[in-house]
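Researcher: We're teaching a course module on how sequence relates to structure. For the next exercise, students receive a sequence and then see the predicted structure as C-alpha coordinates, so they can try to spot secondary structure elements on their own. Here is the exercise chain.
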Amino acid sequence: MSKTTSKSSLGIWSQRLLAAILLGGQVLVHLIRGKIHRHNTLEQMAAVGPDSLFIALLTAVFVGAVFTIQVAREFINFGAGNVVGGVLAIALTRELSPVLTAVILAGRVGSAFAAEIGTMRVTEQIDALLMLKTDPIDYLVIPRVIACGLMLPILTLLSLVTGMLGGLIIVTSIYNLSETAFLDSARNFLGIWDICSALIKAGFFGVLIAVIGCSWGMTTTGGAKGVGQSTTTAVVTALLMIFVCNFFLSWLMFQGTGSASLQGF
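Model: And here is the predicted structure for the students to work with:
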Protein backbone atom coordinates (compact mmCIF):
# COMPACT_ATOMS: atom_id res chain seq x y z
CA MET A 1 0.00 0.00 0.00
CA SER A 2 2.78 2.43 0.94
CA LYS A 3 4.70 1.60 -2.26
CA THR A 4 1.60 2.25 -4.36
CA THR A 5 1.01 5.56 -2.59
CA SER A 6 4.65 6.53 -3.07
CA LYS A 7 4.54 5.76 -6.78
CA SER A 8 1.27 7.68 -7.11
CA SER A 9 2.75 10.71 -5.32
CA LEU A 10 5.85 10.61 -7.51
CA GLY A 11 3.70 10.39 -10.62
CA ILE A 12 1.60 13.37 -9.57
CA TRP A 13 4.74 15.34 -8.73
CA SER A 14 6.23 14.53 -12.14
CA GLN A 15 3.05 15.65 -13.88
CA ARG A 16 3.01 18.93 -11.96
CA LEU A 17 6.70 19.49 -12.72
CA LEU A 18 5.95 18.99 -16.42
CA ALA A 19 3.06 21.45 -16.07
CA ALA A 20 5.49 23.96 -14.53
CA ILE A 21 7.83 23.56 -17.51
CA LEU A 22 4.94 24.13 -19.91
CA LEU A 23 3.86 27.17 -17.89
CA GLY A 24 7.37 28.57 -18.19
CA GLY A 25 7.12 28.23 -21.97
CA GLN A 26 3.75 29.98 -21.98
CA VAL A 27 5.16 32.82 -19.89
CA LEU A 28 7.99 33.27 -22.41
CA VAL A 29 5.54 33.40 -25.32
CA HIS A 30 3.31 35.92 -23.55
CA LEU A 31 6.30 38.09 -22.64
CA ILE A 32 7.42 38.14 -26.27
CA ARG A 33 3.94 39.38 -27.16
CA GLY A 34 4.35 42.15 -24.58
CA LYS A 35 1.35 41.26 -22.43
CA ILE A 36 2.26 42.79 -19.06
CA HIS A 37 -0.08 44.13 -16.36
CA ARG A 38 2.09 46.94 -15.03
CA HIS A 39 0.05 47.66 -11.90
CA ASN A 40 0.10 44.03 -10.79
CA THR A 41 3.80 43.79 -11.59
CA LEU A 42 4.63 46.80 -9.40
CA GLU A 43 2.57 45.36 -6.55
CA GLN A 44 4.40 42.04 -6.77
CA MET A 45 7.80 43.75 -6.97
CA ALA A 46 7.00 45.54 -3.72
CA ALA A 47 5.97 42.26 -2.11
CA VAL A 48 9.04 40.36 -3.32
CA GLY A 49 11.70 43.03 -2.81
CA PRO A 50 11.19 45.43 0.11
CA ASP A 51 9.16 42.96 2.14
CA SER A 52 11.95 40.35 1.89
CA LEU A 53 14.83 42.76 2.40
CA PHE A 54 15.21 42.57 6.17
CA ILE A 55 15.34 38.80 6.47
CA ALA A 56 17.70 38.54 3.46
CA LEU A 57 20.16 41.07 4.91
CA LEU A 58 19.99 39.60 8.41
CA THR A 59 20.77 36.16 7.01
CA ALA A 60 23.64 37.55 4.94
CA VAL A 61 25.27 39.24 7.93
CA PHE A 62 25.40 36.05 9.96
CA VAL A 63 26.42 33.90 6.98
CA GLY A 64 29.35 36.22 6.28
CA ALA A 65 30.30 36.29 9.96
CA VAL A 66 30.12 32.51 10.41
CA PHE A 67 32.06 31.83 7.21
CA THR A 68 34.77 34.24 8.35
CA ILE A 69 35.00 32.60 11.77
CA GLN A 70 35.49 29.20 10.12
CA VAL A 71 38.02 30.38 7.55
CA ALA A 72 40.01 33.22 9.14
CA ARG A 73 41.64 31.19 11.92
CA GLU A 74 42.92 28.54 9.52
CA PHE A 75 44.27 31.08 7.07
CA ILE A 76 45.97 33.02 9.84
CA ASN A 77 47.63 29.81 11.08
CA PHE A 78 49.04 29.31 7.58
CA GLY A 79 50.21 32.92 7.41
CA ALA A 80 47.64 33.88 4.79
CA GLY A 81 45.39 36.16 6.82
CA ASN A 82 45.59 38.84 4.12
CA VAL A 83 43.48 36.73 1.70
CA VAL A 84 40.51 36.17 4.01
CA GLY A 85 38.54 39.03 2.44
CA GLY A 86 39.09 37.67 -1.06
CA VAL A 87 38.04 34.15 -0.12
CA LEU A 88 34.89 35.44 1.55
CA ALA A 89 34.09 37.67 -1.42
CA ILE A 90 34.46 34.78 -3.88
CA ALA A 91 32.36 32.43 -1.74
CA LEU A 92 29.58 34.98 -1.27
CA THR A 93 29.52 36.12 -4.87
CA ARG A 94 29.64 32.77 -6.63
CA GLU A 95 27.53 30.65 -4.31
CA LEU A 96 26.37 31.82 -0.91
CA SER A 97 24.59 35.08 -1.75
CA PRO A 98 22.58 33.94 -4.81
CA VAL A 99 21.73 30.52 -3.40
CA LEU A 100 20.82 31.51 0.15
CA THR A 101 18.85 34.54 -0.98
CA ALA A 102 16.96 32.30 -3.40
CA VAL A 103 16.28 29.82 -0.59
CA ILE A 104 14.83 32.63 1.52
CA LEU A 105 12.68 33.81 -1.37
CA ALA A 106 11.48 30.28 -2.10
CA GLY A 107 10.31 29.87 1.48
CA ARG A 108 8.75 33.27 1.80
CA VAL A 109 7.52 34.21 -1.68
CA GLY A 110 7.21 30.88 -3.49
CA SER A 111 4.96 29.54 -0.77
CA ALA A 112 2.84 32.70 -0.87
CA PHE A 113 2.40 32.42 -4.64
CA ALA A 114 1.32 28.78 -4.38
CA ALA A 115 -1.10 29.51 -1.53
CA GLU A 116 -2.65 32.60 -3.14
CA ILE A 117 -3.16 31.11 -6.58
CA GLY A 118 -4.12 27.72 -5.12
CA THR A 119 -6.85 29.38 -3.07
CA MET A 120 -8.06 31.20 -6.17
CA ARG A 121 -8.16 27.89 -8.04
CA VAL A 122 -10.18 25.94 -5.45
CA THR A 123 -12.59 28.85 -4.91
CA GLU A 124 -13.11 29.14 -8.70
CA GLN A 125 -11.77 32.69 -8.90
CA ILE A 126 -9.53 31.69 -11.79
CA ASP A 127 -12.58 30.34 -13.62
CA ALA A 128 -14.20 33.73 -13.03
CA LEU A 129 -11.20 35.44 -14.64
CA LEU A 130 -11.62 33.22 -17.69
CA MET A 131 -15.32 34.10 -17.83
CA LEU A 132 -14.28 37.77 -17.88
CA LYS A 133 -11.90 36.98 -20.76
CA THR A 134 -8.85 37.70 -18.61
CA ASP A 135 -5.93 35.35 -19.14
CA PRO A 136 -4.69 34.10 -15.72
CA ILE A 137 -1.15 33.83 -17.07
CA ASP A 138 -1.12 37.51 -18.04
CA TYR A 139 -2.89 38.66 -14.90
CA LEU A 140 -1.43 36.39 -12.21
CA VAL A 141 1.70 34.60 -13.38
CA ILE A 142 3.70 37.06 -15.48
CA PRO A 143 3.71 39.87 -12.85
CA ARG A 144 5.10 37.42 -10.28
CA VAL A 145 7.72 36.06 -12.66
CA ILE A 146 8.92 39.54 -13.58
CA ALA A 147 8.95 40.63 -9.93
CA CYS A 148 11.07 37.67 -8.80
CA GLY A 149 13.35 37.84 -11.83
CA LEU A 150 14.12 41.52 -11.23
CA MET A 151 14.14 41.76 -7.45
CA LEU A 152 16.18 38.67 -6.58
CA PRO A 153 19.36 40.00 -8.29
CA ILE A 154 18.97 43.26 -6.36
CA LEU A 155 18.50 41.39 -3.08
CA THR A 156 21.53 39.25 -3.94
CA LEU A 157 23.75 42.30 -4.45
CA LEU A 158 22.60 43.80 -1.17
CA SER A 159 23.17 40.46 0.56
CA LEU A 160 26.69 40.34 -0.87
CA VAL A 161 27.53 43.75 0.56
CA THR A 162 25.96 42.88 3.92
CA GLY A 163 27.75 39.53 4.07
CA MET A 164 31.07 41.28 3.46
CA LEU A 165 30.21 43.69 6.25
CA GLY A 166 29.56 40.77 8.61
CA GLY A 167 32.95 39.26 7.70
CA LEU A 168 34.66 42.61 8.12
CA ILE A 169 33.26 43.03 11.62
CA ILE A 170 34.58 39.59 12.61
CA VAL A 171 38.11 39.98 11.24
CA THR A 172 38.61 43.42 12.76
CA SER A 173 37.05 42.73 16.16
CA ILE A 174 38.14 39.13 16.82
CA TYR A 175 41.22 38.45 14.68
CA ASN A 176 42.62 42.01 14.65
CA LEU A 177 43.21 41.98 10.91
CA SER A 178 43.51 45.20 8.99
CA GLU A 179 40.33 46.57 7.46
CA THR A 180 42.34 47.84 4.48
CA ALA A 181 43.94 44.44 3.87
CA PHE A 182 40.52 42.74 4.03
CA LEU A 183 38.94 45.09 1.49
CA ASP A 184 41.99 45.13 -0.80
CA SER A 185 41.98 41.34 -0.84
CA ALA A 186 38.31 41.28 -1.81
CA ARG A 187 38.94 43.83 -4.56
CA ASN A 188 41.86 41.84 -5.96
CA PHE A 189 40.06 38.51 -5.92
CA LEU A 190 36.76 39.63 -7.41
CA GLY A 191 36.31 40.05 -11.13
CA ILE A 192 33.50 41.47 -13.25
CA TRP A 193 32.43 37.96 -14.24
CA ASP A 194 31.98 36.98 -10.58
CA ILE A 195 29.43 39.76 -10.12
CA CYS A 196 27.76 38.92 -13.43
CA SER A 197 27.52 35.24 -12.50
CA ALA A 198 25.79 36.12 -9.24
CA LEU A 199 23.24 38.28 -11.08
CA ILE A 200 22.62 35.62 -13.73
CA LYS A 201 22.09 32.93 -11.10
CA ALA A 202 19.82 35.16 -9.05
CA GLY A 203 17.67 36.10 -12.03
CA PHE A 204 17.36 32.47 -13.09
CA PHE A 205 16.48 31.36 -9.56
CA GLY A 206 13.89 34.13 -9.28
CA VAL A 207 12.10 33.03 -12.43
CA LEU A 208 12.32 29.41 -11.28
CA ILE A 209 10.74 30.17 -7.90
CA ALA A 210 7.91 32.19 -9.43
CA VAL A 211 7.08 29.64 -12.13
CA ILE A 212 7.06 26.70 -9.70
CA GLY A 213 4.99 28.56 -7.10
CA CYS A 214 2.45 29.75 -9.66
CA SER A 215 2.27 26.39 -11.43
CA TRP A 216 1.66 24.47 -8.22
CA GLY A 217 -1.04 26.98 -7.34
CA MET A 218 -2.70 26.69 -10.76
CA THR A 219 -2.82 22.87 -10.50
CA THR A 220 -4.21 22.78 -6.95
CA THR A 221 -7.17 20.52 -6.24
CA GLY A 222 -8.89 19.23 -3.10
CA GLY A 223 -9.96 22.35 -1.23
CA ALA A 224 -8.09 23.70 1.80
CA LYS A 225 -6.10 20.50 2.24
CA GLY A 226 -4.96 20.67 -1.37
CA VAL A 227 -3.82 24.28 -0.90
CA GLY A 228 -1.66 23.26 2.06
CA GLN A 229 -0.15 20.35 0.15
CA SER A 230 0.53 22.53 -2.89
CA THR A 231 2.23 25.16 -0.77
CA THR A 232 4.53 22.65 0.92
CA THR A 233 5.35 20.77 -2.28
CA ALA A 234 6.01 23.99 -4.19
CA VAL A 235 8.62 25.11 -1.65
CA VAL A 236 10.32 21.70 -1.57
CA THR A 237 10.37 21.52 -5.38
CA ALA A 238 11.72 25.06 -5.69
CA LEU A 239 14.52 24.31 -3.23
CA LEU A 240 15.40 21.11 -5.06
CA MET A 241 15.46 22.85 -8.44
CA ILE A 242 17.57 25.70 -7.04
CA PHE A 243 20.28 23.29 -5.87
CA VAL A 244 20.17 21.20 -9.06
CA CYS A 245 20.27 24.21 -11.37
CA ASN A 246 22.98 25.82 -9.27
CA PHE A 247 25.23 22.84 -9.95
CA PHE A 248 24.78 23.09 -13.71
CA LEU A 249 25.12 26.88 -13.77
CA SER A 250 28.32 26.67 -11.71
CA TRP A 251 29.60 23.95 -14.00
CA LEU A 252 28.99 26.13 -17.06
CA MET A 253 30.41 29.28 -15.53
CA PHE A 254 33.40 28.05 -13.58
CA GLN A 255 34.38 24.64 -14.91
CA GLY A 256 38.04 23.77 -15.47
CA THR A 257 41.19 24.96 -13.83
CA GLY A 258 43.02 28.23 -14.28
CA SER A 259 41.02 31.40 -14.85
CA ALA A 260 37.68 31.58 -13.06
CA SER A 261 36.11 33.66 -15.81
CA LEU A 262 33.97 32.08 -18.47
CA GLN A 263 35.99 31.24 -21.53
CA GLY A 264 35.16 33.57 -24.38
CA PHE A 265 33.09 35.92 -22.24
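Model: If you want an answer key for the exercise: Residues 84-122 form the longest helix (39 residues). The radius of gyration is 21 Å.
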